[in-house]
Amino acid sequence: MHRHTSPATGIIAWGGIGYHSLILLVRIVGTLNNHRYISEVLESVVLPYLQGLATAIFQQDNARPHVARIIQRFFVNHQIKLLSWPARSPDLSPIENM
């Protein structure tokens, strides 16, 4: 049986939803690393969005770019509360259904 063994093609996107709003959809070209996550998503999209919300809690899964120390410091430095996400938990994020 012939198998397709090359990398799968597709589009990677980052998005967010709030109780009464949506966050801008960001197309991720290539691999998302810690520094790109900060510059292309957190600084440019998340910070401006959260500035208008006094009691927001940010949720993300345990993907490598999300749990790096530099990312955790970013959240502490910008006083952003995070929702705890247990290790090896199923992806129960509501954004997956959007």
Question: Key terms for this structure?
Answer:
32% helix, two-stranded parallel ribbon, 4 strands, 98 residues
Structure description:
It comes from Trichonephila clavipes. One of its GO terms (molecular function) is nucleic acid binding. Keywords: Membrane, Transmembrane, Transmembrane helix. This is Transposable element Tcb1 transposase. The protein has 98 residues and is of the alpha+beta class. Helix content is 32%, strand content 17%. It is built from three helices and four strands, in the order ββαβααβ. Strands 1-2 form a two-stranded antiparallel ribbon. The chain has a two-stranded parallel ribbon with strand order 3-4. A hairpin with a 4-residue loop joins strand 1 (12-17) and strand 2 (22-28). The model has no long low-confidence stretch (mean pLDDT 82).
Strand order of the largest sheet: 1-2
Shape: globular
Number of helices: 3
Distance between the termini: 36 Å
Unreliable stretches, pLDDT < 50, 5 or more residues? Answer: none
Strand content: 15-25%
Describe the biggest sheet? 2 strands, antiparallel
Report the structural category: alpha+beta
**Residues in helix, %:** 25-40%
**Spatial extent as radius of gyration:** 15 Å
Task: State mean pLDDT (0 to 100 scale).
Answer: 82
Helix and strand succession?
EEHEHHE
Give the number of DSSP strands: 4
